[in-house]
Specification:
14 strands, 4-stranded antiparallel β-sheet, Rossmann fold, 321 residues, alpha/beta, 6-stranded mixed β-sheet, 26% helix, disordered N terminus
């Protein structure tokens, strides 16, 4: 990986800013020629929420009254609330594009797939496996028979350009059709997009409007990721631009992890699933104003970090471009 590509990976862990939210709104509201590009019309809005303390530990004992929901700047009552363990629907999306051949990253990615399957609960959780380079391919459809995914051969030389954002957007729509309370997309990649038509903000608009968190596991070489133990990695400064894969993940209520060694991968997968299985599920009535509604979920207790999707579409269906 070059120094330039390393800077791209470092930018992945930039912090979400207000201007990033505005970018999502712009992407949701306008397509080519100023046409609306996303459809709305919902009777209830469901938001999955992850909560951690200042040390990065998952918080599992909160109640409905601990939460506040702000819709377009106004408080909105919570009509339904769920907390606790529940079955997971997980789409694993593996990058097999040419850039993954650098430094053995494809081997790290294959190991991450196996780790993800290992922490799922057979017959309860369900998973599907997708691969992508310039196009997204469904290798194994959603199934509770996780051995079907374990038996898939992921050998072969990575090849082709990378349509990272397009593949995430398409997979998020598929995951949205699953009925389990906890649903997510896990993308295993080196984080470099070279060929997508959609931007990160547009894909985030798709995923966040249907409440599908996206988790990114960025696999890199040890040379490109010096340091000690794997942790909840964050950058010391802001990313230079808006619309990185890390922005996409956080706008949807997901997150990003970086792994360069097997121990990192094990810790990253366990941490992601520890959060995913303990997410809170909040339901509320949508606002009457048609269009995109930015939302914020708050916890009354101090020093807690809350992640949830950035908004939803309300009102009558809007024509696509």
């Amino acid at each position: 990986m070059t120094l330039r590509s390393l800077s791209t990976v470092i930018a992945l862990v930039g912090t979400l800013t207000l201007s990033g939210t505005e970018t999502v709104l712009q992407a949701l509201g306008q397509g080519e020629g100023g046409q609306a590009t996303f459809k709305g019309g919902v009777e209830a809005v469901t938001v999955t929420v992850a909560v951690r303390d200042s040390r990065g530990r998952v918080i599992k004992d909160l109640r409905r009254e601990d939460f506040e929901l702000v819709d377009s700047g106004f408080g909105r009552p919570i009509s339904d609330f769920y907390a606790g363990d529940a079955a997971i629907s997980l789409a694993i999306v593996l990058d097999i594009s040419g850039s993954m051949a650098v430094g053995g990253n494809i081997g790290r990615a294959r190991d991450a797939v196996n780790q993800a399957i290992a922490v799922l609960q057979p017959s309860q959780d369900e998973a599907a496996l997708f691969t992508f380079d310039s196009k997204l391919q469904q290798v194994v459809p959603f199934t509770t028979d996780l051995d079907l995914i374990r038996r898939v051969s992921l050998e072969g030389r990575p090849w082709g350009v990378t349509s990272l954002f397009d593949s995430i957007g398409e997979t998020a729509r598929t995951v949205a059709e699953r009925s389990n309370r906890h649903r997510a997309v896990l993308v295993i990649t080196d984080g470099i997009d070279t060929a997508s038509r959609l931007t990160a903000a547009q894909v985030s608009g798709i995923a966040s409007s249907i409440d599908v968190p996206v988790y990114l596991l960025a696999v890199v070489t040890p040379t490109d990721h010096p340091g000690g133990e794997f942790g909840l990695l964050t950058a010391a400064g802001q990313s230079e631009g808006i619309g990185t894969p890390a922005d996409l993940a956080r706008w949807t209520g997901g997150d990003i992890r970086i792994a360069s060694m097997p121990a990192h991968t094990v810790a990253a997968v366990r941490d992601i699933f520890g959060e995913l299985r303990q997410q809170y599920v909040i339901t509320f009535e949508p606002g009457a104003r048609p269009g995109w509604h930015p939302i914020e979920v708050r916890v009354r207790k101090r020093n807690l970090v809350v992640r949830a999707r950035s908004g939803y579409m309300a009102g009558p269906a809007r024509s696509g471009s």
